[in-house]
Design brief:
The chain has four helices and twelve strands. It is α+β, with helices and mostly antiparallel strands and 176 residues long. The strands form four sheets. It has a six-stranded mixed beta sheet with strand order 3-6-7-9-10-12.
């Protein structure tokens, strides 16, 4: 007998829950770095909330909601020199990250910010390694790496430190 929850096989439902939790943790570790950069006067970068509206509230502090538009890149801010920075955060427990993980809206936003001179990129977690890939490299992934995905080996030059947080600005500015 095949067990299911909400019409999904249990192992797929479980894996989705694990992936979601790891993605949130990844973003929290980036947010910790944002707070550290702010505290040191290096940058003011914030997590952009997902656009949604509350449809129904209950007495236990829970609600039903609906996303109101496609998600923008995850983080946006300004470096000490006045340079804008906009980036998406993506994490995987597998050994590769596919180029198509960005939504059309995220791509459009990163393109527009790039054209206006902002630093744009994708902060990537592949298993226990972390990277900040410039968007210009991400969008031409096949040209740079020969395929439409990246591995930790492919992007080792973009690796950043993990120091109680994902220090995503390592290759952009010298913070210490």
């Amino acid at each position: 007998m095949k067990m299911e929850i909400n019409n999904l096989p249990i192992n797929r439902k479980y894996q989705s829950m694990v992936n979601n939790a790891q993605g949130h943790l990844f973003e929290q570790l980036i947010d910790i770095a944002c707070k550290e950069y702010s505290k040191k006067g290096i940058a003011k970068i914030e997590k952009i909330p997902e656009p949604f509206r509350v449809l129904e509230k209950n007495s236990y502090g829970r609600f039903k909601g609906q996303f109101t538009k496609h998600a923008q890149p995850d983080f946006c801010g300004t470096l000490k020199n006045g340079q804008a920075i906009v980036f998406e955060a993506k994490f995987t427990t597998t050994d590769r990250m596919n180029k198509n993980v960005l939504s059309d809206e995220q791509i459009k936003s990163l393109e527009e910010h790039s054209r206006l001179g902002a630093i744009t990129g994708v902060c990537v977690g592949i298993k226990d390694d972390y990277f900040f890939i410039p968007y210009a490299v991400w969008k031409d992934m096949k040209k740079h790496f020969g395929h439409s995905y990246i591995t930790a080996e492919d992007i080792r030059q973009y690796k950043v430190r993990f120091k109680c947080a994902i220090m995503f600005l390592d290759n952009i500015i010298k913070s210490e």
